[in-house]
Amino acid sequence: MSKLFRIGVSPDFYSEARESLEAVLAARLTGLPGVEVAPMPELPGLVATPESLDQFDAIFALAVHIRPESVRGVRRLAAVARWGVGYDRIHVDSLTENDIVLTITPNGVKRPVSEAIFAFILALTKNLLTQDRVARAGGWRGDLPRLGVSIAGKTLGSVGCGNIGQEMFRMSQSMGFARRIAYDPFVRQEQVSSLGVELVSLETVFRESDFVTVNTLLNASTEGLVKESHFRLMKPSAYFINTARGPIVEHAALVRALRERWIAGAGIDVFPVEPPPKDDPLFELDNVIVAPHAMAWTAELMRDNGFEATDNVLCIARGDRPPGAVNRSVLEKPGFQAKLERYR
Amino acid sequence: MKIVIPDDYPVVMAASAAYQRFASAHDVSWYGTLPGPDLVNRIAEAEIVVNIRSSTRFGEDVFASCPRLRLLSIWGTGTDNVDLEAARRHGVTVTNTPGVAAISIAEHCLMLTLAVARNILTTDASVRRGEWVKGNMVQLAGKTLGIIGLGAIGSRFARLGAAIGMNVLAWTLHPDPSRGYPQTPLETLLGESDVVSLHLRLSDQTKGFLGKSHFALMKPTAIFINTARGPLVEEAALIDALSSRRIAGAGLDVFDVEPLPAGHPVTRLDNVVLTPHNAGITPETLESGLALSLDNVTAFLAGKPQHVV
Lengths: 344, 309
Prior knowledge:
The structure holds 2 protein chains of 2 kinds. By secondary structure, chain A is an alpha/beta fold. Chain A is 35% helix and 14% strand. Chain A has a 7-stranded parallel beta sheet, with helices on both faces. In chain A, strands 2-1-3-4-5 form a 5-stranded parallel beta sheet. In chain A, helix 2 packs across helix 12 (299-317). The longest helix of chain A has 20 residues, at 106-125. The model of chain A has no long low-confidence stretch (mean pLDDT 96). Chain B has 2 domains: 2-100 and 283-301, NAD(P)-binding Rossmann-like Domain (Rossmann fold), CATH 3.40.50.720; 102-274, Rossmann fold (3-Layer(aba) Sandwich), CATH 3.40.50. Chain B contains 11 helices and 11 strands. Chains A and B meet through helix 5, helix 6 and helix 12 of A and helix 5, helix 6, helix 7 and helix 11 of B.
């Protein structure tokens, strides 16, 4: 490594995840020769600018936006290392054009997100919010409007069967589900057969599942993927869980499905706009459990995302290809390879 | 053969499919209210009693007043409402319905654990108030689950915990290597577990099983789960451990006094998740347990008693 490898940290780390950031830096980067970590400058609207990016070789990205104009003329930056897996705030083609690799952390997120899905599923089926309210108010089980139901014997469904979907199905193995079904046009049946997952159409997932979970990226082809017609296919006893991204679902259709009891309930960790408006109609409904895009924000999630992002960045600092690359085509571009060569 | 169901309130038995078949074949007197002091009047002539609620107590006085009684078929697994010695003295066979609720109770245990670990109640309320605070949630994968009591329910919860990615430690009254877990000393289990879940039967031997000294051994980050019976735990010690944050939180389905009186100290804690003693009650387990309690009667009448306690 010929010169100092500078890693910039997006400003939202210091307001949202300072402790986790500092723990990861202390464990993996502090005192490492040839590497310097520094905060990126304040970014209005959390949108990166060319000046904020081009003083670094890599940046750690939490929820920072990178648009085409953010990387215009950027020459030094080699990597955007997400702590997490979603990259809907990052214009990937512009990174590729500018010889910048985007890396994500699929291993860190899969367990905490899968656990969060089961937390929603169980809290919904056991009618937790009502139970706790009744028990605290001096009522008893005779005052409950309905019984909880068992998850054993039910059908677990997923829109998307990649990293997180597969981990969710792996966790579900001993839970007594009768059937596991998923829609994913990018996965082949033989890749998921060992998990007992049957790949079916999107409509079948909605029609036949007792729990429809969303485990897909947000991109142009998944935005608005889940529509009113899908909720109309669901059983009235079925639940909908979204821990992926809000814009994948038509929010008004979800609200209508819950309000008019087309479905039994929903667990919602993500919204079309975050934070959502205070008068989001979901907040008036008693058959929904809501969370602030944080159901998976465990100490381990941030630590493991941080370690994985650090591994990706240090790979590049050694002049190697990072394992978590998203835009893999950039790895073959002469411009990117020249950057790697500089670090060797 | 006179059969009495003295305590089907809230009504479950009369609404079940199994009861419709049973009642058409037998002479059944059914009561859709709790008996209170009227219990002996209701069952004085009965040879068989099907007991629905654990609040209906069968002590020496009751057995002495019902000389014709031969079978007490309990819906559920707990027998702490029955003086089993007195039943034996009076020649009354007692049966229960083991196993049927294990699946739903174990699911309920996992639900309570996740609800405490992910702050579901306070988080939901906070978002509905218009806040957007990303707090640190607790992850279960990689943590240690301590199971006290490896019966049908404890074993099933151990399996669910392992499915989530937890390491399981177990202590049980009657160690049996075939259960799949080595016996961990109780003190070690309490000291090393991130989640401690209680699955013992309530008896004179186990009343007040966990007290102040046990909570003192637990991690400050520990979550305590009780879906078994309230009196297994010294409730004041539990409330003290929770309110002083000696332990992080609890998920509780059972209490010393049920229904939980309004204003009870446990209802004022913000680090607990409470449910009104219904962990085992889902439509699926309800129906299969009720059916089994009636099957126990049929088997007894055929001279082949089953599920005798």
